[in-house]
């Protein structure tokens, strides 16, 4: 309430005062006919009125919003995905179980289901331990445990591990500043902190973006200066000594060295010890990269009445990392998208265009599902009227990000007015709205995502704490309301969204 009131109040006040004095001064002058009244102009500025939608369609959007807030389908589906199926690493049996289960749930609603083939990486985690075996101040005969986890795609150490000196740097600049040969034959630690203050003010994505580069290319930067293994400080804000996994990438031509994420606490401890004197660490990582696996995107169409060939995608990614059960990343995105089809089914609503639910595969390990989709549906991209992805958890949503024509903002204002009732009136332009739909966005498809509260998302992201209990049921319903109302608005508008 508070945040919106001052703005509107200031605006209304400024607007009325601006006009009134003039009118008062000029006495009986009446504006020429056809001039929109103060209320008309106020209404237009505040986005009141149905815009391109009919009052019946507006009423339908309100019904969908309210149904989403009442219905616990998304929460029940999420609990099954996390507790009964569990972690859904690309190529794993659980990921296949999830494909079959989501497909069956969509068929049960009468949606037309297609399993689209995608060849995906099949990396499996092995043993992963770290211990400091010598350091300044060490009690004789003792070691210190280091809490860590292998980065996704990492190669293995020898079965009984490696032992080497540790060199700690805060960032790439510090690495570049080291005398040549300093890191040769050693274990390099990137102790780059996640900006918790930036996350705390609601820009978790920005903090993540600044930090994830160390996870992504840290291993190849370390290998390039002769390191035998690399440790990166976890990309996330957790203060619970939890390591955050995530994909690392080995570019062609650079030797692949074992790579692990240590907890923020262990990175700070190691960096401190390294500043006092020589530190040696024993590291054991035994992951395996198995042959690529056959997997699938789950596609479920709720056919349109007038333009079944035109589609509006509502989506999330079905795979997850294996430390937790992938509740916020991205089970939440999957179930709020399933809820859209569920509510259209339950309320017997058939929009003009097809609403296409997509559960993308392997977002975490290279978006192979999304790449396969753009290749397979290349010829139909002009008929992709809109694409929505939810992949930033299920925090309280405050509105909609849109990528595409600037006009989309004003066009969507009536929709944001409906979502105002659940605290989500914001419309914000954004260059991108989701990794899996980025290929469609680049091809000109109007793209959208809920604006989700990201202050806490990166505390659990890619950790063993990414579990069902981290999802607030009311927030999940609010996200489902946004996905459903927006999908319906795009699928039933008289004309397609501007592109
Ligand atoms: Zn994700």
Account of the protein in words:
The protein is α/β, with parallel strands linked by helices and 499 residues long. It folds into three domains: 43 residues, no CATH class; 267 residues, Zn peptidases (Aminopeptidase); 161 residues, Glucose Oxidase, domain 1. Helices cover 38% and strands 22% of the residues. The protein contains 15 helices and 16 strands. The chain has an eight-stranded mixed β-sheet, with helices on both faces. An eight-stranded mixed β-sheet has the order 3-2-9-5-6-7-8-4. Helix 10 crosses helix 15. The chain is elongated, with a radius of gyration of 26 Å. The two termini are 33 Å apart. The relative contact order is 0.17. The N terminus is likely disordered. The chain binds zinc ion (ZN). Zinc ion binds next to helix 10.
Structural class: alpha/beta
Count of runs of 4 or more consecutive helical residues: 15
Q: Which ligands, by name, code or SMILES, are bound?
A: zinc ion
User: What form results from the Cα inertia axes?
Assistant: elongated
What strand order characterises the main sheet?
1-10-12-11-13-16-14-15
- Within CATH, the superfamily of the largest domain carries the name Zn peptidases
Give the termini separation: 33 Å
Beta-strand level of the residues, as a percent range?
15-25%
What can be said about the biggest beta sheet? 8 strands, mixed
The stretches of 5 or more residues where confidence is low (pLDDT under 50) are: 1-26
Regarding CATH, which class of the largest domain? Answer: Alpha Beta
Q: The CATH topology of the largest domain is what?
A: Aminopeptidase
* Number of DSSP strand runs: 16
Mean pLDDT: 93
Helix fraction by DSSP (H/I, runs of at least 4): 25-40%
* CATH architectural group of the largest domain: 3-Layer(aba) Sandwich
Query: Rg to the nearest angstrom?
Result: 26 Å
